Each structure stands twice: as structure tokens, then as C-alpha cells.
């Protein structure tokens, strides 16, 4: 049975998120409404069709504790160093994210996507501005078919139309870039990133077929 109060709160948060897409709290609060448990379970079943991802649901790797001092001291170009710099440059604090338990496949999907979001930023080369967020969400939509990603993209485009029309070119280019990268890449979901901090970003992009140079060349071609 629908809860009118819950939907009213969701509508209020959605309105705020469309006005200001940087309001992380509002966006996170919308996730359980936009993607309820039954949708998460269906998403988990679809993801498990890929052998590597199916194995992740058995092992359920998590990012774990983040020692930002240690990550920042890793050699330049490694995933850990690049991740640390991404957080520092954009003023992001991973401790601000809610710690989610993952006792079921559905809850593992939500927890893993939340804690690896900024890792995907690093691997795809997207910044943390609105355009970059749209790019990562387009990548996520192409990779896993997340309804939440589509909802964020819809809100971002509404914000572009109503409040930031001058940003349309950059945002749409990022969206297309993210979609193309996600379509071409191997599945990233379920990777044990906590064991890969010392591996170079270049090597990981090759491992997962995240061909940023090819896609960027394609998008830079004149019409």
C-alpha cells in the first residue's frame, strides 16, 4: 500500500534535487523510493548473469576502511593515489556516506554502488561537478541498468532545462561519453577495489576495457 506521506516527502526532495543537483542528502534519501527492494532484487538477478559479477555476489567484496593518508602516499597514477586526490580536490569525505550492511543480494547492490561511486569517477575520468555526475550516472545506466541512475539523469536534465541551460553542451557531452564508456567496458560491479589501490589507473582501464582515449577521440570529431 502506498504511503502518501512517504511520496510527499519524496516529491519534496526531488524538487530540491532538481533545483540543486549537488544536494547529496536529498539524492540519497530518494534512492529507496526510486528503487525499492523488489527493484533491487531484480537488478541483482540481472547482474548475476555475468560470471564475474555472479562470483562477487558470493564473495561480496567491500571497499572497507579507507586510510586516506596511506592512499595519498601511494605512487602517482595508482588507483589509491588518484582516488585520494579526487576526494581532496573535490572536498569529498567518504566518512560522510552512510555505512550500509549487505546481508542480502539486493542490499549488496545498493551498498556496493554507493561506496564505489567515486572509484568509478576516477576510472572514467569524470569530475565531481554536475556534468561529471551525469557522466558517471550514464556509465552506470549502461553498465547495470540502474533505475536510480536513470532518475538522476532525468533530474539533471530537468535542472539543465530550468536552471542551467548554458551548461547543456558540457552536460550532454558528458552523458553521451558516459554511456559509450559504459557500453564498451567490462562490468565493474563487484570488483574488489580495496585490493587494487596499488594498481595503476592505466592498467585497470585496460583490464576493464574503459577506453577513454577512443571515446574522447570519437566525441572530438567535427560534425
Task: Kindly summarize this structure in a few lines.
The chain has 223 residues and is mostly helical. The chain is 66% helix and 0% strand.
Helix content range: 55-70%
What structural class do helix, strand and pairing data support? Answer: mainly alpha
Topology as a string of helices (H) and strands (E): HHHHHHHHHHHH
Report strand %: under 5%
What is the first-to-last residue Cα distance?
51 Å
Low-confidence stretches: none
**Main sheet overview:** none
How many domains make up the 3D coordinates? 1
Global Rg: 17 Å
| Number of discrete helical segments | 12
| Number of beta-strand segments | 0
Taken from the alpha-carbon principal axes, the silhouette is globular
Describe this structure in words.
The protein is 66% helix and 0% strand. It has 223 residues and is mainly α. It has one domain. The protein is globular. The chain starts with a helix and ends with a helix. The mean pLDDT is 88.
Amino acid at each position: 500500500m502506498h504511503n502518501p506521506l512517504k511520496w510527499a516527502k519524496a516529491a519534496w526532495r526531488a524538487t530540491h534535487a532538481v533545483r540543486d543537483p549537488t544536494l547529496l542528502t536529498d539524492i540519497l534519501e530518494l534512492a529507496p523510493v526510486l528503487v525499492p527492494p523488489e527493484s533491487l532484487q531484480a537488478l541483482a538477478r540481472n547482474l548475476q548473469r555475468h560470471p564475474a559479477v555472479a562470483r562477487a555476489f558470493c564473495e561480496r567484496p567491500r571497499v572497507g576502511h579507507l586510510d586516506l593518508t596511506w592512499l595519498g602516499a601511494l605512487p602517482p597514477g595508482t588507483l589509491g593515489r588518484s582516488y585520494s586526490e579526487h576526494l581532496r580536490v573535490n572536498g569529498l569525505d567518504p566518512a560522510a556516506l552512510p555505512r550500509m550492511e549487505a546481508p542480502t543480494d539486493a542490499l549488496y547492490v545498493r551498498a556496493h554502488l554507493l561506496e564505489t561511486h567515486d572509484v568509478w569517477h576516477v576510472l572514467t575520468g569524470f569530475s565531481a561537478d554536475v556534468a561529471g555526475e551525469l557522466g558517471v550516472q550514464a556509465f552506470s545506466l549502461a553498465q547495470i541498468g540502474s533505475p536510480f541512475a536513470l532518475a538522476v539523469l532525468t533530474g539533471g536534465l530537468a535542472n539543465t532545462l530550468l536552471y542551467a541551460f548554458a551548461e547543456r553542451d558540457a552536460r550532454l557531452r558528458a552523458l553521451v561519453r558516459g554511456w559509450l564508456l559504459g557500453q564498451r567496458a567490462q562490468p565493474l560491479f563487484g570488483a574488489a577495489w580495496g585490493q587494487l589501490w596499488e594498481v595503476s589507473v592505466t592498467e585497470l582501464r585496460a583490464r576493464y576495457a574503459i577506453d577513454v582515449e577512443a571515446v574522447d577521440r570519437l566525441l572530438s570529431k567535427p560534425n
